[in-house]
């Protein structure tokens, strides 16, 4: 029986005539396919997708400004899409205000109502000196006006839950389908006294109350930009200094 022959191979992956001969004879394995074409294809597809969806975050006014740059038929498609979105939101916007709650009506106004839409409850502080509660009260009214398809309610925490700790206010309770989907104790995780609309809208997106591509959310992101997040961080840092 012939002894196996050790064939010298410097680099089995190199594109050489010698390696081609060895591959044909099964002495070395076939060279694995290069990942480059796959990566290039993925990048090209991403560029095409980004170009195709370049108008996704544009409102009607911004679409009108692009008349000289974009194909009219393409723009008209997005105009109609925006009009449908606006019409749908408008039809569902039956609230538009903050509802004061009474404990005896809580089940009807919150738990039962959450089978039709998201219901957010702000358990407020009983003290006029709780700055976070005051901040959230202002944001609550702005949110209610902007997101009329969501029901925003408010009740003093100690009147809703006897003995509820003041240190836990403000508290946000988010209801859907009769259950609490999320609760936020104080505004610490949202930015403390620097909590803003961008943080509140992110909370709505996180729980599924609004979509991430909702034009109302995108408008806030474009208006505030990264500066809002930095402001919230600075405000939170100031809060920490107060407690040192």
Secondary-structure blueprint:
Elements lengths: L16 H8 L11 H17 L7 H6 L6 H21 L5 E3 L5 H7 L6 E6 L6 H16 L4 E6 H4 L10 E6 L2 E7 L11 H11 L7 H10 L1 H18 L1
Parallel strand pairs: 1-3, 2-3
Antiparallel strand pairs: 2-4, 4-5
Helix pairs in contact: 8-9
Task: Describe this protein with a few key phrases.
disordered C terminus; five-stranded mixed beta sheet; 244 residues
What does this protein structure show overall?
The chain is elongated, with a radius of gyration of 29 Å. The chain has ten helices and five strands, in the order ααααβαβαβαββααα. α8 packs antiparallel against α9. The C terminus is likely disordered. It has 244 residues and is of the alpha/beta class.
Summarize, please.
The protein is an alpha/beta fold and 244 residues long.
Q: How are the strands of the largest sheet arranged?
A: 1-3-2-4-5
How many strands in all? 5
Helical residue percent band: 40-55%
H-E order: HHHHEHEHEHEEHHH
- Poorly predicted segments: 226-244
Strand content: 5-15%
Shape designation? elongated
Structural class: alpha/beta
The major beta sheet can be summarized as: 5 strands, mixed
What separation lies between the terminal Cα atoms? 85 Å
Gyration radius (Cα, Å) is 29 Å
Counting DSSP H or I runs of 4 or more residues, the number of helices is: 10
Mean pLDDT: 74
